[in-house]
Description:
By secondary structure, this protein is mainly alpha-helical.
Amino acid sequence: MVDPITGGFLSWLCGKLGDGALKYLASNDELGRQLDKAIGEWAKSLPPDRHLVPASLYKGIGQAVPEERPCFCAVQDWLKDKEPPPQEMWRELFLESWRWVRDNVEEPQAFYRLEEPDAAADLARLAQKTYDVCVAYEPIFKKTVVTKLNNISDTLNDVNERLEASPPASAGVVGPATCGPQISPSRLRHGADHLVGRETELAWLDRQWDNAKIHVVTTVAWGGVGKTSLAVEWMARMAQAGWCGAERVFEWSFYSQGTREGGAASADTFVTDALEFFGDPEMATSAASPWDKGARLAQLVAEWRSLLVLDGMEPLQYPPGPVGGRLKDPALEALLRGLARHNQGLCLVTTRERVEDLASWEDTTAPKWGLEHLSDVAGAHLLFNAGVTRAGNAAIQETDQELKDAAREAKGHALTLRLLGNYLKLAHGGDIRQRDLVKLEEADPEVQGGHAFRVLATYENWLAEGGEDGERQLAVLRLLGLFDRPADSGCLSALRKKPKIKGLTEPLAGLTDAQWNITLSRLRECGLISSECGESSVDAHPLVRTYFASQLREQAPKAWREGHKRLYAYLTETTPDKPDAKLEDLQPLYQAVAHGCLAGMYQEARAKVYRDRILRGTGSDGFYSTSTLGAIGSDLAAVACFFEEPWTTLSGQLSESDQAWLLNDAACGLRALGRLSEALEPMRAATELEAKKEHWDNAAIGSGNLSELELTLGQVTEAVEDAERSVEYADRSADAFLQMARRTTLANAQYQAGQVDKAADLFREAETMQADRQPEYPLLYSQRGFLYCDLFLAPAERVAWQTLLQLDTRGSGPNALVSACDAVEPRAVQTLEWAIARRLLLDIAFNHLSLGRAGLYRIILESSPRDTPSSKLAKAASRLSEAVDGLRRAGQLQYVPPGLFSRAMLRFVARDEAGCRADLEEAWEIAERGAMRLFMADVHLHRARLFRDKAELVKARELIEECGYGRRKEELEDAERAAKNWPDQMQD
């Protein structure tokens, strides 16, 4: 946020642009801070009888009319000519505003009751200070005020008129599209004040922007190498050049929403804000699946020549390992995959890990750039610019060999060199020979930030020996270690208030605002907090936060816990419970959960904040954050806070019942996000806890869910075993519904294992139990009814494939198979009516799928499929499309592939090969991403049969055998028999 003084000044300069434009114009630039400082010093110099709050100078600023505001309009003219107005112009402008306030504001402050000559004399001093700042920072003046204003509109008056008629969008969009590019507020942090040694990289980014074939660019490097600084500088140059044809500019820093080690970051807030910015606020606030939101965002971004910058994506990626670099969040994956396929503009990603999800496009539309460490020459230049200009008593130039040696010792690590340069300047007068005190040679080069940590340790010792001022600065740095994002002023005030936190805030006790601001200024001078920080928040590079967090936690664990406890209390007490809360309204509560857990308050954070205020209960009207806002990722990030090791070990301070609840919640969240392999362990642990406590109903539910998950992952034998346990637990529970439902779970597992007769017996038994339990609903319905219909249709499905493969089907009894289709249709029609009456989206989709399949198989069995008139396929096609769309809307990705398989088959019959391939490609993406190996086998088998592809057939056999996927064994053998007549190479 912009402080009132700077905000008022910029509003005065630029006209009444509105809050969204104001935030963008200020951007916490150095110019704004210096103006704030100059105006503040001037106001403090006034005698008590002339007191005023400087922001009052800007009251009543409305539309600029030359006849009424000649000086104001004259300043605007100077801006359009890209020149700082002269001192006399500032004096007249201030005096004009003084007159306006005197004449139009009731009971003005004392300053406005002066005689005009007296006020004019003081305002002349203010004009002098303002002019001096603008001249001293003329390059920044032109860059932050002039250039940005020119980008917003052709004329300032036009912008004023439009914004008065239509206020800026909630996402901060500046002006309508007809006035130039729409630009989001700046969110990037940690950029270097002066970027050096990156001209090659900047030129490369320029070429990617100009290349229509490039859609996504990924810059990869360790923390502190300079990824964000590169992005910030390139964005600044793009802005200075008028954005080079960009129609939409949106930037996001994932560092700003939590980077705590071991946690589970979420892209929910980014996706919500981006969807609003790019034009779909309804989708942004819906409970649609993350995948659907990401796909929709990709579509919206690609409609424009957009510049999308995503900085610091590594919190959303898996760490190094078997799946290292893969995205954890399906919305981000859908977005980046979608943009890699089609994008009129460019998406720039910075991260510490290669984005494996983009690997298929690295040689085409989504190149990766490994950002190297700075060269010795560039590193020497950086040190020299930071103030390292001596070697002992001798002055040196930036080409000095000792500077180059220092750069080499720091391995060219940009953050290390910036910190080292500032330290040597402040502590040793810029003497390069004092770098030996830092002992860079002791740094561990295999640790992220190892060299930077050595400099930070030296800073820590220096500040500790620096008396009262040093202790204050050190205390602020330790405070920042409590945060995994920018620390807002409210949180910092809560930490500073009485009583003091022993071992943490004693040096800050009783500080005036002026002393606090001086402390922050000195830390900025050291380069230890971000130069972009404004009055409303304080931030530091993530490596700086990481270092001081580790030091505080190890050296003062009681202070660490007390600090988090105070932040927990502040956030919970100051966050209102809004009936229609948006995701942004819940963010302080998500942060409170994290701080509460770090304070050791696991029980209270789980019950009072996460369950009661974020979920708003767990009954039929609960789960607000997910059911209303679709915040699955945010909830999972909160649940991760209760784990000592996600997703295996929970805090021992939680009761067994709470542990079981959280394990189940984590498993459900992971499953909903498509992270199925990760969901197995918490799901199994929760089930075992429930069985241990003889909570047979919960144990039956857990083991049933576990079986379904194992089946999806291709662990068929394990799925059968856990399904058998689920029946055992259900029978012990005496719950009639569970006894029926778990039998269908076991039946499905047996069916996929190829035990068809056993499965049919269990389905019949379950349906009898269903009719006894609910006589008004005598048929299996919902997913259970769909699975039963699937088994009914299996023989017809096999012969339909044999027909497409041109195999002999004379002994298959086609009439009996058509009768099976006939038997399924009335069942599905009946259960569809029940689902529609109860508005059950998933159930409706399942029934459309059953009806579509039955119709498709009948068509294939009754006629020559490749000669079938399109009119005969229309009804089945409609059913299958409704099924696929409904399954997507239901937000459960694991159910979408079966619909895509059936529709792909129909599209092949209808000679729509492109549509057929597209459906199978989508099914593959879903299956591969979630390690859904049975579906992956299905994709291989479908591709082999439809496109006569022997290579795909080999892959199908490998997976079917590995998984024990007995259901497909006969179909596989049919395909292999037909493949003897296929050509060796797949036909285009």
